[in-house]
Amino acid sequence: MAGISRSGEAPGGVLGLAADVTDPEALAQALSVATEAHGTIEVLVASAGVNRESLAARTSSQMWDEVISADLTGTFNTVRAVTPAMMRARRGRIILVSSVIAARGGVGLSAYGAAKGGVEGLTRSLARELAPRGITVNAVAPGFVRTAMTASLPDHIRTAYLEQIPLGRFAEVADVAGPVLFLASSAASYVTGAILGVDGGMGIGR
């Protein structure tokens, strides 16, 4: 298993590689190292992303470009880099990470919502394109996950978000990892083009 991030940090037992997903050449180099260490990549989980929360009228072009570049273009770059080998092998699992915001929208989240909506459109198109090669493409759309980012939210904002979640809590990282593992497994061999909400019910009716 290999993990690619800006820092190159990874959990124990995982090959950590540093790369910027917005830079196709750097990404290709990192994937080359991963392939040399572990062989052909059979499962891709593309979860890189950033958010620059800002009202649309106050969102600079730079802020917009940063979010779209990392969350949407970076996702595409990663998929494009791994699919040739998967196509040759005629098998593979691709899991992209969207967000409940793609379906619900959010104040100050125009760029993020647009990027994640694009990820969902990308998921469906790739699913149709790659199915004949034995490759499934799905996405998970988490709600609010307990991370350093959500922990830094002001109390009144965190409370407002919690009130929108039928299960009444933020997700733990493990709550998202489970569905990802399912989509990567043989149990999901007949699932493709799906957007799986992992949001505690926040996206009911999406």
Features:
Rossmann fold, 4-stranded parallel sheet, 7 helices, 2 domains, 206 residues
List the helices and strands and how they pair.
Layout: E1 2-5, E2 15-18, H1 24-38, E3 43-46, H2 61-89, E4 92-97, H3 101-104, H4 110-130, E5 135-142, H5 148-151, H6 155-162, H7 173-184, E6 195-198
Parallel strand pairs: 1-2, 3-4, 4-5, 5-6
Pfam families: adh_short_C2
Protein name: KR domain protein
Transmembrane segments: 94-115, 176-198
Characterize the overall form: globular
Helix content: 40-55%
Estimate the strand proportion: 5-15%
Note the total helix count.
Answer: 7
Protein name: KR domain protein
Keywords: Membrane, Oxidoreductase, Transmembrane, Transmembrane helix
Family: Belongs to the short-chain dehydrogenases/reductases (SDR) family.
GO biological process, one term: monocarboxylic acid metabolic process
Can you characterise this structure?
There is one protein chain. This protein is α/β, with parallel strands linked by helices. It has 2 domains: 1-39, no CATH class; 41-198, Rossmann fold (3-Layer(aba) Sandwich). The chain has helices spanning 24-38, 61-89, 101-104, 110-130, 148-151, 155-162, 173-184, and strands at residues 2-5, 15-18, 43-46, 92-97, 135-142, 195-198. The strands form 2 sheets. The protein has a 4-stranded parallel sheet, with helices on both faces. Helix 2 links the parallel strand 3 (43-46) and strand 4 (92-97). Helix 1 (24-38) runs parallel beside helix 2 (61-89) and helix 2 (61-89) packs parallel to helix 4 (110-130). The protein is globular. The two termini are 33 Å apart.
